[in-house]
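Notebook, bench 3.
Goal today: get a predicted structure for Class I SAM-dependent methyltransferase from Streptomyces alkaliphilus so we can plan the truncation constructs. The sequence was checked against the plasmid map this morning, with no discrepancies at the termini. Length recorded as 285 residues. Pasting the sequence as submitted so the record is complete.
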Amino acid sequence: MVVGAATEGTGAGGGSRPRPGARPTGTVTRGTTHRNRLRRMDRWIVAEHGAALRRSPRPPLAVDLGYGAAPWTAVELAGRLRVVRPDVRLLGLEIDPARVAAATPFAGEGLSFGRGGFEVPLGGFGAPGGRPLLIRAANVLRQYPEEEVPTAWRLMCGRLAPDGLLVEGTCDEIGRRHAWVALGPEGPRTLTLAARLADLDTPGDLAERLPKALIHRNVPGEPVHAWLRDLDRAWAAAAPFGALGARQRWLRTVRSVAADWPVRGGHARHRQGEVTVDWSAVAPR
């Protein structure tokens, strides 16, 4: 990836603007995709960002960046966002022209596809003007070198609306285990782990799904390693609650770590097999 090759402007919130005719910023990823793979991430987005979508004075724009070889996840995101905002417009972006061509037959009212990368071009795809209220980039940066993550974040955050949200992370092939970072125009805010609890042996198993910014930081001395260690310890201590089911054990685990870590979200989110912590508590040193 030639960082910044397709943009003008600098900084998160700085209004990076793609030059006309410039090639997309990024490289083609493997493109693996399955139906419902991102349902846990989408469920969190709807719950946490639904209020911002509802209060938008104009039809909000959402971007699915790097939807892959098939458009299923973009189509599903559009449907899930419409539960809270029926007039939402969703733009699916891919670098590979062949993927854009394959997705185009699925376009329709409020759903369009185009070619683009981290610079997030917005014109000419049947999408409204203005900045996106949401950008989702799932299983994209995991395939890049770690040192390229800050620039990619900066480019995408620089395209967000003032109250917009970037959700960037990874999951396994069928969506049982997720980890994602939520970022505003100013930069990263939180890290969320989410899992199908019935398949979870320990919270530490989610380490293999950490976003690229953290995947190589799960070593002693790094905050994210301490976070996963404390989750595992609390999970072990909550073993007696396993007799009541994996969910009760998870709820006890989250309640325990919340005494020492800045855990976000309420009981309803934790019941879904999620735990969210402030980015400042797990950011790389």
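The longest strand covers residues 187-195. The two ends are 25 Å apart (CA to CA).
Flagging this for group meeting.
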